[in-house]
Amino acid sequence: MNFNEILLGILRNNNIIGAISSAVLIILFGFYLRKKNVFKDNTAKILTDVILSASLPALAFKSFMQDINKNSMMEGINLLIWGFIIYILLIFLTKVIYMKYNGDKKAVLEVLTTFGSTTFFGIPIIAAVYGNVGVMYASIFNIAYRVFLYSYAYIKMSGIKADKNNVKQMFLNSIVLATFIGMFIWLFQGSLPQVTIGDTSYAFLRIDKTAFWLFKPMTYLAALASPLAWLAIGAKLADISLGEALSSRDSWIYSFIKVVIVPLINIVALYILTVTKILPVSFVGLASVIIMMATPTATVAAAYAIKFDKESVLTSNCSLLSTIFSVICMPLWIVVLEVIKSMNIFM
């Protein structure tokens, strides 16, 4: 199959084209609503709070409400392991990448490159393109992200040891709790007390089968994650000065590394690990990782920089420019992933 045939196949895939167009158009709509003052100063923050406290936890939990088999379980374990490996690698690689920089600027660029907006920006896109399986794999992969974001990133930016409040954030925020609870049910559904429905038995905590009255509202909350996130991104973009960001050479360098180079590193590494069968992943597993890695600056990482007064202007510029880069590049990454899929390397 040549490239033209692959591209035509992508263009004929309504799910992919619909997901890409939805993300871009709704982000632009959020931008328009903020510019017209329909969205007020605090609207993006309110939308973000709703997404992080309700929609994304529901989406993460819901994604685990499915049958388990040997392949999906091994895939989840491999992605969990890869999550810890890649963040440790990025912590050291960024020191080399930014070796020409010094002081706070070097520290900030290292942290901002390592940690992207995987939860807020990445998972809604994964949900739109790759469905529940993609979200489940992304949620498992993201466990390592949470551990390092609230430990390494905090220590690096603050210059002090992680305190008990940060440890609480690491393990007790609603998204992490929903992920761990959902993963527990998914992994141990065969050992939990069973409920027979028709001719099939399900774990009593598989609420998609045993308590549909509870599962259905959760699906509505989960479905809000993508459109609300895209509206909030558009509204946030409208509030930041594009001219200042565009004039920052460091922000351009950072954005290219964050949105292009970091995902490429993951593709090469996961290709080697898959063909050698050391840590094989499926296509959906690969796609979930690449989309998570191609996300812009993490909100928490940017907040650390601003809170501890470390290159706050550079951080704001990096956040804006990397968001624009990511919005432009994400459809391209999805096309690249579909080309990789056609090669049948990742099954």
TrEMBL record:
Gene Ontology annotations of biological process type: transmembrane transport
Entry membrane topology: Multi-pass membrane protein
Signal sequence bounds: none
Transmembrane segments: 16-34, 46-65, 77-98, 107-130, 136-155, 171-192, 212-233, 253-273, 279-306, 318-340
Keywords: Cell membrane, Membrane, Transmembrane, Transmembrane helix, Transport
InterPro entries linked to this entry: Mem_transp_PIN-like
Subcellular localization(s) per the UniProt record: Membrane
Alphabetical list of Pfam families matching this protein: Mem_trans (PF03547)
GO cellular component annotations of the record: membrane
Record's protein name: AEC family transporter
